[in-house]
Amino acid sequence: MTLTHTPRSDVDLFSDEVLVDPYPVYRDLRDRGGAVHLSTLDIWAIPRYADVRRALADWAGFSSRGIALNEHVNRMLVGSVLASDPPFHDTLRAVLSERLGPRAVRPLQAEIAARAERLVDELVEKGSFDAVTDLAVTFPFSVVFDLIGIPDDARPKMLGWADATFTVFGPLNERTLGGLDAIGEMFGWLGTLQATDLKEGSMGRDIFRAADEGRIGRESCIPLLAAYTSAGLDTTINAIANAVHLLGTHPDQWDLLTADPGLVPSALNEVLRYDAPVQGFGRTVTEDVEIDGVPVRSGCQVLLLYGSGNRDERRYPEPDRFDVNRNPVDHLAFGYGTHACAGQALARLEAHAVLMALATRVRRFRVGEPVRHLNNVVRGLERLPVDGLVLR
Question: Is residue 233 over pLDDT 60?
Fold first, then answer.
């Protein structure tokens, strides 16, 4: 049944205040309806779990051509794997999946676990560390750069580049404008690379090999290389940092994990549900659609709020309670359907390895006051001091 009124809100989802703590705002949006018109941006917010998942499953009706909330970036992204639909998307995605799919990354499990154990041993020996800079950033960097084969001279700038890759998907605000400069620098540097600049046998070298074999166009190499990098860094960094923060502020849940490290996969799923690293992406509606009785016209842009859907009380009982036994395997943090995160298998391997290394070595730890990092799309931390370690 079509509603006689349109749910509306004048909230600015990209203000500093909302980015610091978006969850009360998300609840208000869910209470208003399945589709809520945001007057500040003239777009529709989709805040409920079932509607977000349904839209993600319908790539034809909700096109990724509108993944960014500003036209400047959407024009830049034409032809990229993130902003394309099948069948072209599937061609590009296949190249990523060859090396990032679950079967492809499984042989890396032992080496990734060993790396995590070495790093955690070093940090534990120090007695205190920063969970963001010393752990959540350092570990994915050590893995991803070797796998992709990118030259070491990019390391000092790659974190900022990966952060900018996501923040420019927001509206054309100050964060987006600052990110555009970094994105230009990144693509300028990537554009200088040839296959021979990347390590033999690396994921990056395979992209150029796919072009040589005619499976993709040469013009797709650099965007795919950028996609590899962003898929392997920012979401993983923030998932690990968020996990340490949540487990440090919920010591009863950490006790459950140390008592049974087999809960690590369930705990990570709960971290991803409770505080999704990627809070949402845009889509463009390609035909008239009705969402919870609200008509949304063809050509309108919608914002699929993963972070809100993951806290939807219609899907998860007591959604604001952090529970490592919940195991919400159906969370939206990695998206769903055709555009589900290509790097999620690698991200899981890395996060599982870090949590397992911590859970088998540390009985208790204390986290200090976190410093929140503000990004239009990604939710994470800049700093999180850890001390008070009690070893097992």
Answer: yes
